[in-house]
Structures are given as structure tokens and as C-alpha cells.
Amino acid sequence: MKLLPSLKQLEYLSALAELQHFGKASDLCNVTPSTLSAGIRDLEAVLGVALAERTKRMVLMTPVGLEIADRARVLLRDAEDIMGYAAAYGEPMTGEMTLGVIPTIGPFLLPKVLPTLNASYPSLSLFLREEQTASLLARLRGGEIDLAVIALPFETEDLTVRVLFDDIFQFACHADHSLAGRKSITDRDFVDQPLLLLEEGHCLRGHALDACRLRNSPIRVQFEATSLNTIVQMVASGLGVTLLPQMAIDANIAAGTNIRLIPLLKKPSRRIGIAWRASSPRSPEFDLLAEGFRSHKVD
């Protein structure tokens, strides 16, 4: 029988190509640097080609090493799917599952949903990973996570997506702001207001602007933050106004502050969805998980 690379060797190569560092790659694979280095050398012997150039300071992947690493990621993902395929024939919603979630959803939705899911599926070990949408979907396509809770619209291409619910926006300002006495807010009210937003890269920023038709309006962005909690504190200090998703409001993000929350006249919203690889054999289980999220949506 022809000698073939092992999955462990391919895992080492994939990690080394991603991180370009033996120490970091070995940490990712939970082995010592010497073990990973030996695994790469064994793989080079099996393949008969050099995969990486080694110096005391850095690792430089060879062109063939990068190409094989790309193919290795596909094989590793397929191996994970084989395990999932086998698990799907056993009792559903058991074993391990890795769920990705974006920062503007995770802290507000998961505490409401996970206790019930844990009670309903006690044999399911759910691992969580929080990152921005683009990074999560890259990990999803690469097989590093099983599914991801994201905000839509977002380009999901070949992924299967289930819509969970809509999350409306509300206008938030200091209690002393000139608009604080309004019963509702229109798009025109945003003109010349010092708007506080999440920084570029957070999809909530674009969703809020698009939902309120502010993308091409003459708005004045006063401050950009990395988290909703920071923005809330800035609004509470009277430094500007913002748009908050109902999900965060229901999780009491503005509780105990002097912030006034006012409905938007047209009730703009973002759509919350859950995505997974269309090829995953655990799709029936993911549908069950999606229904669990949907039935415990934020009202």
C-alpha cells in the first residue's frame, strides 16, 4: 500500500502555514515544538518535497508547501465531516459542536438561549467562539467551527443560512438631549447629530446605517468604538447619539444610565441568522439548534 500522509501531519502543516511559527503552531496543535517539527520532517519525507524553510527567527513556507497546506485544510475539514456524519447516525444533538457568534449578538442572546438548550440537550457539548463576521465565516468554511450566528445581510455564498428573527433598532440619546422628549424619531432627525458608531469591521455599523437609510446621508460621525458598552457610556456622558439593537436593550445594556430610548418611526431592523456548511452531515441537528434559537428570540 502506498505510504500516505497522516491527518496529524496535515494538521501540523496547516497550522504552520497559517501561523508561520513553530512555537505558535505547536500551541495550536497542543504538542511541543519538537513534536511538530518532527511531524513536518516526516511529512516532507513521505511527500519527497521541502515544505518549509527554517531559520532561527522565522519559518518561510515553500510554494509547494503552501499549496499542500491549502489542500490539507480541505482534507481535514472532510475528516471532521466524516466524524459528524457518523455522529448523525447516533443520537442527535450529542457530542461536540463549535458555535461562532459575533460580538454584537453573543453577550445579549446567548445568556437567554443557552440555559434552555443545555437543559434540552444535556449530552451536547457546545463550544463558543466570538469574532467578527468575516473571520467567523472564514473559519466556518475552513471547518474550524460548525456553525455561526451572524447578522444579515452579509455575503454567505455557498453556506446554508436559516433566518432566526429580526432585531429592531432604537434611537438612544442623553436624557437632556433636544430630541429626548420625542415619541418617535425619523431619518431626518439624524442630520447634523453627533453619531456614535462601532468602528469599521463590525457589521452592526453598516446594518444600522442601511436600516435607517443613513449610508449616504450627511451624518456626522462623532466617535467610533470597539464595543456597544463603550458607546452606551459615551451616550450617557452626553457626547452623542446612537442606534441600539433591541437585543442589547432587552439585555439591559442601558440600565442604570441617564439614556433615553426612543422608537424609530419606520422600525428599521437587522436580521439575525445562523449559517453552516451546506455539505455538513449534521444539517438536521443544526436545524434543531436553529429552532431552539428561534423559539427563544428576543421579543
Describe it for me?
The chain has helices spanning 7-19, 22-29, 33-47, 63-88, 106-120, 133-141, 203-211, 228-236, 246-250, 283-295; strands at 52-54, 59-61, 95-101, 124-130, 147-152, 159-174, 194-198, 220-225, 242-245, 259-263, 269-277. The relative contact order is 0.14. Strands 3, 4, 5, 6, 9, 10 and 11 form a seven-stranded mixed sheet that branches. Strands 1-2 form a two-stranded antiparallel sheet. Strands 7-8 form a two-stranded parallel ribbon. With 299 residues, the protein is of the alpha/beta class. Strand 3 (95-101), helix 5 (106-120) and strand 4 (124-130) form a beta-alpha-beta unit.
Radius of gyration: 23 Å
Number of domains: 3
Write the H/E string, N to C.
HHHEEHEHEHEEEHEHEHEEH
- Which range does the strand content fall in? 15-25%
Distance between the ends: 60 Å
Largest sheet: 7 strands, mixed
Second rung of CATH, namely the architecture of the largest domain: 3-Layer(aba) Sandwich
The number of strands is 11
Name of the CATH superfamily of the largest domain? Periplasmic binding protein-like II
Which ranges are low-confidence, i.e. pLDDT below 50, for 5 or more consecutive residues?
none
Task: Give a summary of the structure in a few sentences.
The protein is α/β, with parallel strands linked by helices and 299 residues long.
